[in-house]
Amino acid sequence: MTADLSPVRVGITGHIYLTPATERLVDDALRAELRRISDRPVRGVTCLAGGADQIFARAVLALGGAYEVILPAGDYRARAIRPADRAAFEDLLGRAVEVVHTGHPNAGTDAYVAANRLLLDRVQRLLAVWDGQPGCHAAATDRTVRMALRRGIPTTVLWPEGAQRAEVPPGG
Fold first, then answer.
1. What is the mean pLDDT of the chain?
2. What is the pLDDT of residues 64-96, one digit of tens each?
3. 127/10 Cα distance (integer angstroms)
4. Which of 3, 53, 58, 153 is the most exposed place for a label (fewest CB within 10 A)?
5. How many angstroms separate the CA atoms of 12 and 2, rounded?
6. Can you give the pLDDT at residue 172?
7. What DSSP letter does each residue of 39-86 carry, written as one string?
8. Which residues pair with 10 in a beta bridge?
9. CA angle 45, 159, 148 (to 5 degrees)
10. Across residues 149-160, what is the average pLDDT?
11. Can you give the pTM of this predicted structure?
C-alpha cells in the first residue's frame, strides 16, 4: 500500500489587527500546528487579509507548502487592504498557486461571508487565530469557526499566551 502524499488542505481565519509581538507568537504557533497536523505537504487556503491570513501564508511557504487565495470582491485590494500593506499583499498574491474570486464586485460583509463559505468548501481543517471574543458582523472569526464546526470541519483555535489584538486604526 502506498502512502497518501496528497496535500492536506488547511484554511485560516483570524484577526487582522495584531500587535507586532503577537504576530511573532502567532507565526510560531501556526508553524508548530501545521507541523503537528500533517506529515504531508500543506495546501493552505486564505483570503490574504492582513494579520493572521498573511502570517499563515508565509508559514505555509516556509514549511514547503503552497496556498490558494480566495478574493472576496473585485475591489478587495482597494477597499480592504491598507495602503501600507499592499506591497506585502501583492507579493503573497503573486506566490499563490491558484486565485479564486467569489464574484462579488464590492468588498463588504456579504462578500466576506461568501469567501468564508468558499474557503470552508475547499478545506479539510481550519485554523483560527482567535481570542475567543464574539465578532461584530456575520463574517467575523467566531462566525467562521461556528460554521466550520457545524460542517464537521476539524478546527483548532490558536491564541498564544501573551497574544494581544492591536487597536484598529481609523478607517480600518
1. 93
2. 999 999 999 999 999 998 888 899 999 999 999
3. 7
4. 3
5. 29
6. 57
7. SS-EEEEE---TTHHHHHHHHHHHTT-EEEEEEEETTHHHHHS-GGGH
8. 44, 125
9. 45
10. 98
11. 0.94
**Contact (CB, 8 A) for 163 and 22:** yes
Q: Maximum Cα–Cα distance for the chain, whole Å?
A: 57
Sign of CA dihedral 21, 25, 28, 34: negative
pLDDT in tens, 38-59: 788 899 999 999 999 999 999 9
The Cα–Cα gap between 51 and 138 comes to 19
Q: Which residues contact 133 (CB under 8 A, 6 or more apart)?
A: 142
Residues 6 or more apart in contact with residue 134 via CB below 8 angstroms: 140, 142
- Strand order, beta sheet including 125-129: 98-104, 66-73, 42-46, 8-14, 125-129, 155-158
**Burial degree of 75 (CB within 10 A; 0-12, 13-18, 19+):** middle
Cell of 8: 492536506
